[in-house]
Structures are given as structure tokens and as C-alpha cells.
Design brief:
- The protein is an alpha/beta fold.
- It contains ten helices and twelve strands.
- It is elongated, with a radius of gyration of 31 Å.
């Protein structure tokens, strides 16, 4: 039977050429299956590791490894890989104790030799349904995990995702010494936007700013919405002048965006507070956020629509550097 890239893979392990042929003939013509054959338990285990079949049909008695031993090894592999394989054991022994021992080893089903073709197809069909269900559950789990790390309004990562990403980057910056900047961005007078034009307008402003973050940053950088009108930007491998260019580009793009709400033109501006990771200062992500938040508060206090950049932590030997960009009007109803 010709292999098909997207066909369900079934591994057949049996030292008897007669039974291998019987199984092949039974499943012949069913294009949804791709068959892989093994003559011994060792061959079957190697084939399993190479092909990751969805279903395994294995004889109980084989040279070197029994079907029960093979089943136990497959289950151990699955525990490490997080996968699932439906296992059917073929046996000529009808004693209940042996059957129970096979099921206890992790087999999903057993089939007594000589088997009826229809019974084999029924077992394979049941296995396929269970495997398909397992895949659906895994897909749903991945989607739920993604949703748990994503802000649904903007499509950006959320605070939880930011913390996980930042921890890895901080470790790398500490170890290899590359620059890392954390910026907090906050939409100016956001409550006024909601109160004046409605929450739908506020949501639009958030989405437009999220798009600006995506457009003005590299794939290697990280941006997130961490709550309300507050956003996070993490930039690595740039010096202070590079960070100025990045943050000013985002601020400027947002300030030039004209919104049309309720028959009026409106401009929404953004304030930034930026802090630099100082190597060997034992800074955590929370420390950097706190420093960026202080800088953001300073930007708000000095007129909004500006960037406050702090390059050194308080208490360090270096001097703190704050850079301010000219303010503009936060919102102009017209």
C-alpha cells in the first residue's frame, strides 16, 4: 500500500509473514491508512520512534520483545513526548489473566487470533475515532493556551506572556551582555476618550496603537498589552540612540493618526517610560517595570505625549539620563 503524507499511520508488528499479509489485505484500498511493517519488537520500536504512528497493531509473541513489552515502552515514550498511540495486541491466548496483563500494560484493545477481517476493521475504526478525538483535544488545548497568553482585543500577548518572555530575555542579557530596554506606554487621557466618544472609540484607539507597536518593531522584539490602556515594549540589541528611534517612531505615528468619532476629528497621543536593564545589578522584570513606570509617571507629569528614558537604575554608579521629546496636544475635538 502506497504511503500518503496525510494518511493515518498504522504500525503492524508481527513475526509471522502470514499475519502481516492478512492485515495488509484487510486494510488494502483504504486510502486513509498508511501501513508500516515490523518483524520483531526491536524493529517495531525503531519504526515507532521514526514514524510516530497513530495506531499500533502488535502480536503478543515476537522475537526479542513481546507485544506487552513493546506497549510499555511506547507508553513511556508517550509520557515524554506528550503524544498518544492507540495499541491493539494480537494474541492466540484466550486466558483472561493474559488478556488483563496486556490491558494493564497500556493496550487499548486486544484481538484473538485467528481474527475476523470485520473485527479487525472495527478495532481499527474505534482506534481512529479515539485518535481523532485526542487530536481535537490537543488542538483545543493549544488554542486555550494561546488564548490564555493573548489579549483578545488587540491580538497582542498579555501580561502573563510578557512575564514568561521577559524572564528568558533577562537571563540572556545577563549572561551575554546585550542591551535590553523595557518601555511602558500609556494612552493619554484614555478615560476622556471613553467618556466623550464611547468605549467603541476607546477600543479602536487601543487597536490602532497595538498595530503601531507591531509595525514599528522587529520580530525579535516583544510588545504586549498588559492592562487597560497600558502597553509594554521590550527591545534588545540596540543602544540608547536606537531605543530613542524606536520609541519616538511609535509615538510619532500615533500622534499623526486622525480618528473620526461622533462627527469630530480626534488625535490620541501616547506617553512612554523607558528603563534599561543594567547588567550585574540583579534586576528582575518587576524591577524594570517599576523603573519604567516611574519614568512613565514623569512623562505624564511633564505634559504627556513624550518619552522619559532612564538608562541607569537608582543607586548605581552611573548617572541617570532622561530624555524628553516635545509634547503635543493629546486630543483635539474639532
Amino acid at each position: 500500500m502506497a504511503n500518503r503524507t496525510h494518511a493515518l499511520k498504522i504500525l503492524i508488528a508481527d513475526d509471522s509473514p502470514v499475519y502481516r499479509k492478512l492485515i495488509e489485505d484487510t486494510l488494502f484500498g483504504m486510502g486513509e491508512f498508511s501501513l508500516i511493517f515490523a518483524k520483531t519488537g526491536g524493529e517495531a520500536l525503531a519504526a515507532y520512534r521514526e514514524n510516530r504512528p497513530s495506531i499500533v497493531v502488535t502480536d503478543w509473541m515476537m522475537p526479542d520483545l513481546t507485544g506487552v513489552q513493546l506497549c510499555r515502552l511506547i507508553r513511556k515514550e508517550e509520557a515524554r513526548q506528550g503524544s498518544y498511540t492507540y495499541v491493539v495486541i494480537l494474541t492466540g491466548n484466550t486466558e483472561k489473566e493474559q488478556i488483563i496483563s496486556g490491558l494493564s500494560a497500556g493496550a487499548d484493545e486486544y484481538l484473538t487470533k485467528p481474527f475476523h477481517a470485520g473485527e479487525l476493521l472495527a478495532r481499527i475504526g474505534a482506534g481512529k475515532r479515539i485518535v481523532d478525538l485526542q487530536r481535537e483535544l490537543e488542538t483545543s488545548k493549544r488554542k486555550l493556551e494561546e488564548l490564555a497568553l493573548t489579549d483578545t482585543l488587540t491580538g497582542l500577548p498579555n501580561r502573563r506572556a510578557a512575564e514568561e518572555w521577559a524572564d528568558r530575555q533577562l537571563h540572556g542579557a545577563e549572561r551575554y551582555g546585550y542591551p535590553l530596554w523595557v518601555a511602558l506606554a500609556d494612552l493619554d487621557h484614555f478615560k476622556q476618550i471613553n467618556d466623550t466618544y464611547g468605549h467603541a472609540s476607546g477600543d479602536q484607539a487601543l487597536q490602532v496603537f497595538a498595530a503601531a507597536l507591531k509595525n514599528k518593531t522587529r520580530h525579535s522584539d516583544f510588545s504586549a498589552r498588559i492592562g487597560g490602556e497600558e502597553f509594554l515594549l521590550i527591545v534588545t540589541h540596540v543602544d540608547e540612540s536606537g531605543m530613542r528611534v524606536v520609541s519616538e517612531g511609535i509615538r510619532s505615528q500615533m500622534a499623526q493618526q486622525v480618528f473620526q468619532w461622533g462627527g469630530h476629528n480626534a488625535i490620541v497621543t501616547v506617553s512612554f517610560g523607558v528603563a534599561r536593564f543594567a547588567r550585574h545589578q540583579r534586576q528582575t522584570f518587576a524591577d524594570l517595570l517599576a523603573r519604567a513606570d516611574e519614568a512613565l509617571y514623569s512623562a505624564k507629569r511633564h505634559g504627556r505625549n513624550r518619552i522619559e528614558l532612564v538608562s541607569s537604575p537608582r543607586g548605581s554608579t552611573g548617572n541617570s539620563v532622561r530624555s524628553r521629546f516635545a509634547t503635543g496636544m493629546e486630543m483635539h475635538p474639532s
